[in-house]
Structures are given as structure tokens and as C-alpha cells.
Amino acid sequence: MLPTAHYTAFIKRRAAELGFMYCGISKAEFLEEEAPRLENWLNQNMHGKMAYMANHFDKRLDPRLLVEGARSVISLLLNYYPPEESQQPDDTLKISKYAYGKDYHFVIKDKLKTLLADMQAEIGEVGGRVFVDSAPVMDKVWAKKSGLGWVGKNSNLIRPGTGSFFFIAELIVDVDLEYDGPIKDYCGTCTKCMDACPTDAISAPYVVDGSKCISYFTIELKDQIPREVDGKLGNWVFGCDICQDVCPWNRFAKAHQEPQFNPHPELKNLGRADWEEITHELFSELFRQSAVKRTGYAGLTRNIQFVTEGAPLAQPPDL
């Protein structure tokens, strides 16, 4: 067996042992097709007040600017779909499923560091970096190039027979490996995600206006949520799963096997009144290691107030 084939087989086998659902590999190169798409998306201000999205434009498009001598991008998927008994009922205030358990950044980064160390033990000197949604890496694009799925009309990576409830992470390394190729787009004529989005954030097939997304309003936006979306957020107070919940491919989603993603036992028992009266102490207990900490107690209570009471009235002018 050639060294590249041996190394590739080792990486994919070890990734599976660490709990990753799938592993795909692509050549580290300039993302020529994505450059005009990203530029157009930014020029239309679809990133809203997420100023960081406009930073490091060149690095987003070329992994060789992130890792010296980069040769391969290893993309990995980690399932986070919760078992049915852990999911919040529809009649309560809700957070996105990805935030039920321990913050994925920590869980996945630990696994990636182990994988990189194992690669170095098996292959020898390997230079590389791990990436978990924390650097200018276009993870869905690399996962698509690596054959892990296609990017759907809701801009999520979708894998046939699996759905889209998974995290995407990367290892960018300076080693030549065997590369996978992309697969077909299986969205077809379906527009369920577009039809279901209450804020019309999916402005066209495969185009998501981030500045209109419920996840943007409840996580990224630090100002007051605009009055024009009053009544459109449903029960969502952190993130949103609507476009994934309605996707026909997610009928294949299976419960994850990662104990660290299990929610706090009290989360499912929180009724609407409990959410409205949540204290800082309870927030800290429920979400001590959760991604919900990103919005903070003040941000979460702002969201709860907006969903339950509507947009605050504008301050009257001074008389």
C-alpha cells in the first residue's frame, strides 16, 4: 500500500474510533468558485452586524494562508441530534438542539487534538492546525469538496441517509493524502426550508440572508431585536432549527452517542413560565458549559422578553 493510501486509511479509521460520523479529505487549494459568491454576499450586507465575516477574506478562501505548507483539508462530521426523550416540547421556549449539551467547541477540539497527535505518532512529523468554527475556514464548502454531503437550499450541509444535524470541523495539515470528490445535490425541487422560514431569511435557493435569520437575532445581534420581526421568532430564544426540522432528509437523523452532548436533566422540564422567570443562578447551572453562554444571561432574558412580550416600545422623546 502506498504511504498516502495507508495514511488516509489510518486517519479515517481513527476518526471513526473518536466518534466522528464521517471523514472526508480534499486538496488544500484556493476556493476559486467561492470567491465571487462570498464577495457578493458581503456586498449585499447579508452578514448584518457580524463584522468578523468580512475579515480575513483571503484566508477564508485559501487554507494555505492559515497553515504554512498546507496540502490537505480533513473534514469531519460529529452528530449532535438528541434522542427524542431529550428534546424540548413544542409548547415551551426553545433553544437550538446543538446547544443542549456541552459546548461543541471544547468537545470537538479535544477529539481533533487527539487525532492530530495520533497522526504524528503514525506518520511522523506532521504540521497542522485544528479548526472548530473559530477561524476563517469555510467549513461547509470544504466538507462538500470532501464528499461529505451537499450544501442545501438552507445553506446547511446535508448528507443523504443522515440529514444535517451534525457539527463540521477541520484539520488542515501539510501532508499529501488521497482525496475524495463531491457528491450530487439531492435537494431537487423541494422548497420546504424556504417555505417554513418565518423571517424569509432564505432569500433565494442556496442563499441565506444572515441578517434575517432567527439565530442571528437571538445570538449574534447585541442590540435590541428589531420590531419588524415581532411575532416571527416563535418560541426560539437561542438559535433556530426550523429549516432543519422541516428538511425531509432529517427524517433519517439518528440520536448521537456522545454523552457530553446530553442536556442538563432539568432542561426538558422547563415550562414557559420557568423560562420567563429564569434567574441568573439557574442560567449558570443549566448552561454552565453550554454554547448558550455565548449570549449570556442578559442576552437570553432579552430574547425571552421579546418572544413572550414583544418588542419594547421606543423611548418617548424628551419633553
From TrEMBL:
Amino acids binding cob(II)alamin: 60, 133, 154, 157, 168, 215, 240-241
Binding site for tRNA: 222
Cofactor: binding comment: Binds 2 [4Fe-4S] clusters per monomer.
Catalytic reactions on record: epoxyqueuosine(34) in tRNA + AH2 = queuosine(34) in tRNA + A + H2O
Gene3D superfamilies found in the cross-reference section: 3.30.70.20
A Pfam family matched in the record: QueG_DUF1730
Assembly behavior: Monomer.
Protein name per UniProt: Epoxyqueuosine reductase
UniProt gene name: queG
